């Protein structure tokens, strides 16, 4: 028979919680036999678990025998305490689940320029899904060059970014998002604008004034620029477009970004069957980042758009 203990209960384990749930069911059913159906276990197992709980607490919780099931005074107090404890656990569970349903917080995202014209709109759809899940989420979007986006993620000013894939930086994680094709363009007013592709040879193209990007690119993409005569440079794709539209330079632009100018008759692609490169755009997050529900929901929404 359990005896009173002077030492306090050191901790409440998962095993203790299971025993307290059995105890609650027994009390509310009015005895061991009636609790069998509710708990889905036999009377002997219930009896053993009750004995374990009494041993654990050092208290006699009930009388059981021919006279029936009767709570002791201490058993009544433990029952009330167990209701408060188990109720608090259920409240905790419900409120944590509520956090998943009612997102709060901020998302700081950095994007390289001119992704909004991508036909698949994965980023736009993911941001819309995030806002749908959490109306109170505040989204802060910063447009920056790829190095600025990566640095912002590294130093914590940004939680996530989207950049062209290049050599990975230590401390960052990259996930593929888009495949993007870039073509070689010139603008109306350039000497080649009205020259048929059949009359264009690569040697002539490689000798003309061209624009080089200053952001990092994979080695296989850099090779396309190394063959050109790059006499100008730009930190982003909008800058490249500005220079091409002067009619003085040729340069590579993503086809989705150049499309509107092509439709207006202001740009044309030069030998698009051979003068192109494909580039992956990736999402970037910091390795070892602290858990953040808003960020994780955005990344989940981004992955679901694939």
From TrEMBL:
Residues 15-72 form the HTH lysR-type domain. The keyword RNA-binding does not apply. Coiled coil: none annotated. Keywords: DNA-binding, Transcription, Transcription regulation. It holds the Pfam family LysR_substrate. InterPro entries: LysR_HTH_N, LysR_subst-bd, WH-like_DNA-bd_sf, WH_DNA-bd_sf. The keyword Transcription regulation applies. It comes from the Bacteria. GO terms for molecular function: DNA-binding transcription factor activity; transcription cis-regulatory region binding. Belongs to the LysR transcriptional regulatory family. This is LysR family transcriptional regulator. It comes from Ventosimonas gracilis.
